[in-house]
Amino acid sequence: MKKTLQIIILLSLSMVNLAVAQDKKPNIILFLADDFGFGSTNVYGASEALVQTPNINQLAKEGVQFNNAFTTGSVCSPTRYGLLTGEYSWRSRLQKGVVSPSAPALIRQETKTLPEYLNSIGYTTAAIGKWHLGYNEKEFKNLLGTIKHGPNSHGFNYSFTVPNNLDDVHKIYVENDKVYGLRSEKLSPYGRSFYGKQYKGYDAPQRVTEQVMNDLTEKSIQWLDTLDKEQPFFLYFSSVAVHHPITPSPEMRGKSNAGAYGDFIQDIDRCLGILINYLEKNNLRENTVIIFTSDNGGDIPHKKDIMPENFAINKGLQINGTYREDKHTIWDGGLRVPFIVNHPDGIKKGNTSESIVSTVDIYAFLADYINVKELGKNDAVDSFSFKKAINTSKAKYQRAPLIHRDAKGRKAVRDLEWKFIEAKDSNAKDKSLHAQLYHYKKDPSEQENLIHEYPKKAEELNQYLETAKKVGTKLNTPLK
């Protein structure tokens, strides 16, 4: 009788432990590379003779690799806005371009962001890396004093960020709501950035471009070390690589066969590997979702013989694969990106998916995947969960049409096979400014404009786009 009682108690405890394990929310690392084109990693076609990305390769091998993943914008700020809000950036004031170094916060205070949603279900959150979504209520001259409406005002419990990009005029880090390490409010403008503008000259530690990836990775580890291991975390790691200026770390300098640009690609992989190693050493890896993607396609400068990107391309690296054009443009070289989702406890190894997904969908996917609380009707209005595409190689998941915009505000809409691009100037001699229609499944390089052959399809997609401008796409009836 005593032994029977002991067995019952042990079984009961086992059942309780199993229930706790099953109910435990996964940790999340969202690793967003900067200007990292579709063809820049081995699993998406880059030759190992040119660059080596073993950690990204392993992430794909042990998770699901999406081959039809796209951003909502072909430049930085629109994609970042969409990722954190679950809505297209043109629903905000940003109709074209990106957020400038002196621009006010782009995300509205009333918008419920992804980190705010995660806070509401028990997560602790951090944004570490490139922000590029503005600060304060109005345009500002500098970041002295208390900085308002940054990451910490939008759901992040901790932030350590680069205000705009790797060599912006601020040249400092922002930790929570202050310039990191600020010694006084003295300004001593000096030197000029990669873009030709004078640095602000804060009396604070100045970023060293070659060390920024190391700094961000180190801060991520420090933040992870402070956490209660029983509380789930969300780390938004927003890499500054491979945005120009192309300045690889000392650890990677000269390590690739594609010049400095290839070295910088390998910096992304190296820092991802450091984060994964930390998870493994602290028994956190199995229950951590890692999503790896990019904010837009790779940038191909026009100065073909003197820029590191062009050196890598001349060596044979197709940074955007075989897709047309690059960052800034409305074509798929600027919009198609690598996209990998990995979770040892919940996702089968070695899957690939041909389903269409987008960076704007990460919000709805995580809410669906964690499965604790449904999103409100007016939250993440353009975000669709791709959970059904995770553990099957068959295309059972079909997304509603996806809308893109380029650096100049021009829009395009994509369904399962067709892509319609609105006219920028119907009367222009340059036909690339006219309305276009591509059967991108058959013509992935977007070479044959079929708008005159299929006017009804073009009109159908155009009508979807016009309707979506007025109402969140979740509230629309998807095209059949």
UniProtKB/TrEMBL annotation:
**According to the UniProt entry, where is the signal peptide?**
1-21
What terms describe the molecular function in GO for this protein? arylsulfatase activity; metal ion binding
Residues of the Sulfatase N-terminal domain: 26-371
Keywords (alphabetical) are: Calcium, Hydrolase, Metal-binding, Signal
Residue ranges of coiled coil: none
Q: What domain of life is recorded for the organism?
A: Bacteria
Name the Gene3D superfamilies for this protein: 3.30.1120.10, Alkaline Phosphatase, subunit A (3.40.720.10)
Q: Which PANTHER family match?
A: ARYLSULFATASE FAMILY MEMBER, ENDO-4-O-SULFATASE
Q: Which family does it belong to?
A: Belongs to the sulfatase family.
Give the protein's recorded name: Arylsulfatase
Species this chain originates from: Flammeovirga agarivorans
